[in-house]
Amino acid sequence: MNPNLNQSVMALKGIGEETAQNLAEMKIFSINDLLEYFPYRYDDYSLRDLAEVQHDEKVTVEGKVHSEPSLSFYGRKKSKLMIRLFVGRYLIKVVFFNQPYLKNKLIVNETITVTGKWDAHRQTITASEMQSGPNGKIKDFEPVYSLRGKITNKGMRKFIYLAFQQYGQSIEENMPISLLQTYKLLNRKDALQVMHFPKNAEDVKHARRRFVYEEFLLFQLKMQALRKFEREHNPGISQDYNLSKVKEFIKCLPFPLTTAQKRVVNEIMTDLKASTRMNRLLQGDVGSGKTVVAAIGLYASVTAGFQGALMVPTEILAEQHAQSLNDLLAPFQVRCELLTSAVKGKRRREILADLSNGEIDILIGTHALIQDEVSFQKLGFVITDEQHRFGVEQRRVLREKGENPDVLFMTATPIPRTLAITVFGEMDVSIIDEMPAGRKSIETYWAKPEMLDRVLSFVEKELAKSHQAYVICPLIEESDKLDVQNAIDVHTTLSHYFQNRFKVGLMHGRLSSDEKDAVMKAFSVNDIQVLVSTTVVEVGVNVPNATIMVIYDAERFGLSQLHQLRGRVGRGSDQSYCILLAAPKSEVGQERMRIMTETNDGFVLSEKDLELRGPGDFFGKKQSGIPEFRVADMVHDYRTLEVARNDAARLIQSKAFWTSPEYEYLKRQLEETGVLEGEKLD
Ligand code: ADP
Ligand code: MG
C-alpha cells in the first residue's frame, strides 16, 4: 500500500486529536482505515410517488405549501407545527414536532422538500427533515455510518471527503488487473469512492461487487494455500489395502451399494492409497448409508495392517455403531471394541492393553477415545461422525493419536454448499445424495397443539398395526431441568392416555447410561411401544419398526434438527409419519413448519435453514468456525463465493501466482496470516 495511506488520520487537515480518538474507538487509525470504513446502509432521499409508499415507511417528498402553518404548544417546551402540502395530485398534512422555529420557513405557495414517516391512514408525514426549495441533488442518496463518540454522520462524510481530496491520488490497485477485467469490477479507487459517494443503489451494488469478490478471494486463497501446505508438510500414510478382500466384503453385504455410495467408497479408497493425508468431509442425509461406507473404509485400512477409530458424540450412538460394525466385520476376523465412559475397571484395562498391542482392530467410542490413556499401536484411519459436534481441538487431538492418520468427518446434517466450502474450505467434500432403493418418503404433517387428541388417535392407529412411536419433547441443553420435566409430564399424560393398551417409556439426558440403555433395548425389542424422549435419540438410533413420530413444540427446533429427528422413522419398509405439534407465532416459524411438510431432502432444508436463520445460528453458538466477512454475505453472495473459490484453487496451483508481481498483494496477505509457513488457520 502507498505509505501515505498508512499515516494517522491526524494527517488530514481538519482532524485533531479528539476526533482521532473518537475514530480510534471505531478502529479507524490510518487514512486507509477511514477509506475502508463503509456505510452500513444508505438512505434513499429520492422522490417517490406517495401511492407507492407503504404505511410507516420513510419517504422524501417535494411539494408546495398550501396553508399557513399552525403552531401549538403543549406540555413543557413541546410544540407541534402543522401545514398542508400539495404533493403532485395529493393534498397531505405535514407535522413538525418541537421545531417551532421552522414556522418562518414555511411560506404559502413556496416549494419545500420534506423527509419523514408516512402515515397512510391519516395522509400525514411526520417530518424529520425539511429544506426550502426543491429536492437538493446531493441529498438523494445518503450513506449512513455506524458511529461512536461525538462523531456525526455529517462529520464522518466530511472526513472521508477530505481523505479523498488529500490522498485520493495515493489509492493504488491491489487486485490483479486480469481478474478485475474478467469480472468487470471497478478499480479500487473508483470502488471506494462509489461506496462513500454513490448516486443510487445501483452504484453501490456495482462497487460492492468488487469488495465482495476481493474478500472471498482472499479467504479462499487462504483455504487453498492451507490445503496445499498441509499436504506438502504432512505427508500421510499410503495404505496398501487388500483390494480383493475389500471387494469380497462389499459382495457379502446384504444389499448392493447405491451409486452414490460406490462413488464415495472410491473417493475414500483413493485417499487411503495416496501418500497424502485424507482430510475429507462426508455429507449424507440420515439413512443414506454412511455407516456402511465407513465400515468399508475401516476394513480396507485393517487389511493394510492399520487400526481404525470411530468417534461419535453420544453413548447410544457409540453402542449402535459398535453393534452394527461388529455384525458386519466380525465374520471377516476384524475385532471391533466399544470404549465409552461406561466401560470401567478390568474390562477397560483389557481394552486399553489390547489396543496398544494391536489386538483390537477398530475402536468405537465417544470423547473417551481422546483421553490420554488411550493409545493405539498403529492408528491409520480416524472417522468422526456428526463432526460439527466435536470442536476443532478435539478433532486435532484424535488425529494426533496416530502418525498422520487419514481422517474422515461424517455428518448427517447436510451443510449448505456455501457453508461447506467456507467453514471446511480446506477439506475435500464427498456427498451421498441418493437414498437406498425402496425407501418410502416420510409423510409430515403440521398440527396445532389443540389438535392433540386427533394426533393421538392417529398414533394409536399405527400402534394397532404393531408399529411403534416416538414422541419428542424439546431439549435445548441436557442440563435444563424444565425440559426434562417437560418430557416427564408428557410421559405421564401419555401413560394415562394409552392406559394398559400400550406401554410408554421415557428417555432423557438425566438418566444414567445404564438406564438409557435399558430403555433403548426395551424399545428396540418392542417391549415399549411409545418412547417419550428428549432429543437424546436424535442421532443414529435405528428402530425400523417405529413408523410414527410426534414432535412437541416443534417450532423450538431448527429445520436441520427437525429433519434429523424425523430420520428416526422411515427406516423400515412401511409408510412412516411425522407430526409436528407447533403454534409458531412468527412468519418465519410458520414458514419452517410448512417447509418441513413439503420436503424430505436434507440439502434443501439446510439451504432454507441457512436462509431463515443466517450463518451465525446455523451451527449453534458453541462452535461456529464461520468467518466474519466485512462486506460479503455468505448467503446472498454465494455465487461470488463459488467463483472466488475456483479462482483461488486455480491461482494457488499456477506458476504465475508465485512469480508474477501482479499477485504481490494477495501473496502478502497470505504471508500475514502465516499460511505460507504451513501454520494452521484454526
Ligand atoms: P446413515 O448412517 O447415513 O444415517 P445408515 O448407514 O445407518 O445411514 O443406513 C441406514 C439403513 O440403511 C441401515 O439399516 C443400512 O443397513 C441400510 N442401508 C445402507 N446402505 C444401503 C443400501 N445400499 N441398500 C439398502 N439398504 C442400505
Ligand atoms: Mg449413521
TrEMBL record:
Occurrences of domain Helicase ATP-binding (ranges): 271-432
Record domain Helicase C-terminal: where: 451-611
Any one Gene Ontology BP term: DNA repair
UniProt key word Ubl conjugation: no
Top-level taxonomic group: Bacteria
GO molecular function: 3'-5' DNA helicase activity; ATP binding; ATP hydrolysis activity; DNA binding
Gene3D superfamilies found in the cross-reference section: Nucleic acid-binding proteins, P-loop containing nucleotide triphosphate hydrolases
EC number in record: 5.6.2.4
Alphabetical list of CDD domains matching this protein: DEXHc_RecG (cd17992), RecG_wedge_OBF (cd04488), SF2_C_RecG (cd18811)
Database matches in InterPro entries: ATP-dep_DNA_helicase_RecG (IPR004609), DEAD/DEAH_box_helicase_dom (IPR011545), Helicase_ATP-bd (IPR014001), Helicase_C-like (IPR001650), NA-bd_OB-fold (IPR012340), P-loop_NTPase (IPR027417), RecG/Mfd (IPR047112), RecG_dom3_C (IPR045562)
Pfam families in UniProt: DEAD (PF00270), Helicase_C (PF00271), RecG_dom3_C (PF19833), RecG_wedge (PF17191)
Record has ATP-binding as a keyword: yes
Catalytically driven reaction(s): ATP + H2O = ADP + phosphate + H(+); Couples ATP hydrolysis with the unwinding of duplex DNA by translocating in the 3'-5' direction
Keywords: ATP-binding, DNA damage, DNA recombination, DNA repair, DNA-binding, Helicase, Hydrolase, Isomerase, Nucleotide-binding
PANTHER family: ATP-DEPENDENT DNA HELICASE HOMOLOG RECG, CHLOROPLASTIC
NCBIfam families (UniProt xref): PRK10917.1-3, PRK10917.2-2, recG
Function (record text): Plays a critical role in recombination and DNA repair. Helps process Holliday junction intermediates to mature products by catalyzing branch migration. Has replication fork regression activity, unwinds stalled or blocked replication forks to make a HJ that can be resolved. Has a DNA unwinding activity characteristic of a DNA helicase with 3'-5' polarity.
Family note: Belongs to the helicase family. RecG subfamily.
Protein name: ATP-dependent DNA helicase RecG
Organism listed in the record: Neobacillus massiliamazoniensis
